[in-house]
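seq:
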Amino acid sequence: MYILLFSFTLSRSKPYVLEVTHSPTQSVKSIGLNASIQKALQHIWNLDHNRLTPDKDYVINVQKGKKPYQKFDGASDPLFTSVERSAFQRPTYRTFIALLNNYVAEVGNDDTISSHERREIWSFIRAIMQTAPMQFAHKYCAAQDENIPSDLNGFSKLIYDIWFEPYKRSHRGKPDSSGFEHVFVGEIKNDKVTGFHNWIRFYLEEKKGNIDYRGYIKPRNKRESNIDSDDQALSIQFLWNGHEKFVGSSFIGVSPEFEMALYTVCFLIGEEETTVEIETGNDLFDLHVKCFKMARGKVGTSYVEIVG
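struct:
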């Protein structure tokens, strides 16, 4: 059983405690971790009690849909109408947001990690590893692959290595990228936006005036009338500081630990494309989770493709 206590106030957050009370004799299967990665991913969704509620904690205005090749601006207003900012004081949100200013967007620039930035990374890893989605992901991955560390410290180090250890994305100079930077922060390469698959980053950049939302991309197998403000996965088109993202897909309102858990499981245990249905309570989404490796086993990219 997972018990999470969070502080939701805007003032200084109080420590929170996660107690995990699994019997030593419980098998991995009996606590919901089984051989089906599809069921595991749904279970991770079900464990995300830290996500925000659409039309309550945040409001989005999806406006007009389009095909990826269409260039017209389908949105005169921002995507996000409002977000309950007090949620950003929760430990995993707060430590996630602290990482976003540690990177240079243009690929080819040195992304050497300072000692302060490394401490921020470990604060984030420690925070997410106290949550149910990440602890489930750890147990599931370790049960499927004996080479994945079963101890907390070993798995936390693995998270650092695959997500945060810098590597070269361009063919010159020093390491200029990482899995976390690409997926969650976004990069500019050849004048185009690459990566950038996180709703918190999108919202914060949109509030600064750096994002021009240009409408949502119509899923191949979903009627346009079904795209609305309670959708928790969207494909969108936007400009970031004048650079275009033709298609950018992202979960909306989910916690940082949910995305880290889902993408980590798919990266370590899944294929380059893992097909899954996610029942959100409002919708049933058919998703392809894409994961590609770079630099000898590090996250090159990971994102969802919304099929229907």
